[in-house]
Amino acid sequence: MKRLLLVFLLSSILFYSCSSNEARTYQELRMDTVCSFTFYCDNSDEIAREGFALIDKISSMIDRFDEKSELSHVNSNASGGPVKVSDELFSLIKQAYGVCEYTDGAFNIAIAPLVDLWKIGSDEARRPSDEEIESVLPLLDYRNIILDDAQKTIEFRMDGMAIDLGGAGKGYAADALASLFREKGVESAIINLGGNVYMIGQRTDGKPWTVGLQSPGSGRGEYYTTVEAIDESVVTSGAYERYFIDSDGTLYHHILSSRTGYPTDGDIVSSSIISSSSTLADMLSTACFASSLDKAEEIAEHYAVKAVFLLDDQSIIRVGF
Ligand code: ADP
Ligand code: MG
Fold it and tell me: How far is the CA of 158 from the centre of ligand 1 (A)?
């Protein structure tokens, strides 16, 4: 019996440890964006397949545009009373709620009704009328989301409210993928979910990964600066990621203010967060982008993450390095 166990352990170690100098990249469309994994590892076909399946599983929890998702179930029913959710969804929403509170609603998971008015990122994007905006503003107060820790339920105090996890979902998926890949013995890999990156380990030559931060306005591949990362995620929110240009030439981007009902209008044109938690980095990159520079610096310090902010006068502010 013991010998059998040993053989089993050895074979699982052989199977799970992987190293190779040859990089392999797998790329598929998921979460409304291009998702890719680059492995420095031999048995990567199977691992990549499991990775994409994991993204699908997470989407079926948090994608509010999938009417069968767990989040859609919450959004359709929580105005009528408490809705029981999985521990996983509850803790993600709880963490996001904490960021809403600390950032005083700059990051706001109750933003969904406003996102649905603007539809930025889709073909139907448009500037809503002032009346339309005024009619949804009362639905955007995250304090009207009631989280019951003991029962793991979510309830909305008003009809028409809905939760949007668009500012956190890719980070959450990146963390889950990093755990999965590490479990499989992957020691060096790059997870890239539409620019939301997670670097596992370090480069095969032992140096840290170097991640370029994209220059706003120019094509992919032009960087205004770089950051180093080892077992860390780098997440950027910018005005140039998803936007539409109105007939009068005004650019409207996809991060919205629940105070004004319009896209946020701060000094930061690109906000990058570097952290071992991609979930946190995703939420905070959105939060800092939506905040004044003073407040963004305070947020980065409070959460003990590294941050790089590009301002509209082209100056670069680094926090926590
Ligand atoms: P992306 O997902 O495009 O990389 P972000 O992580 O910054 O960018 O998230 C933007 C998404 O978050 C929007 O598409 C929308 O779904 C949602 N969102 C918009 N404004 C806010 C906000 N103030 N707080 C939280 N989420 C927001
Ligand atoms: Mg984000």
Answer: 22
